[in-house]
Amino acid sequence: MSDERREVAVGEWIAATRAAREEGFDFFDWLSAVDRTSEEPAGFDVVVHLYDVSTPGALRGLLVQTRIVEGEALPSLTGVFAGAAWHERETHEMFGIDVAGFDDGSGLGLRPLLLPDGFEGHPLRKDFYLAARVSKDWPGAKEPGQPHTGGPGRRKMQPPGVPPQEWGPR
After folding, report:
1. pLDDT tens-digit series, residues 122-157
2. Alpha-carbon torsion 14, 17, 19, 21, what sign?
3. Exposure string (b/e) for 108-145, b if CB count within 10 Å is 16 or more?
4. H-helix or E-strand containing 22?
């Protein structure tokens, strides 16, 4: 089984997903994003995965993809698939993508879903630093990306707000 793929402009996102539902792709599987902020123009590819389960033994999949520029809001699919609410909240929290017209029926809007209160940043973005990698050495025999033959390791990157080694133990 292979999934059909449709790339649409962000302005056609809702209409394309609604049309796919009318074509029989009425099982909402998931929605997520891919960070493309290192490309020009910086942005995200957002993908929704749908299935047509109407014919036993002949499962058909569909990926509908759109590209949003960084800072642009993604139109919400909650009016097409109520189950998109959880995925849109997760995508908002993990990538920092705003979702226009989000309505999960609670009236609470986009709110934290997985991360603890007060968490700063968006962990699935390429520019997010894992502070644990700075405060605790890699447990393996070598750093990722270091050659097997030894030699100098990679320079340790310090994320913003992490004090230098000379400030004392961590």
Report:
1. 999 988 877 665 555 555 655 555 555 555 555 566
2. negative
3. eebeeeeeeeeeeebebbeebeeeeebeeeeeeeeeee
4. helix 13-22
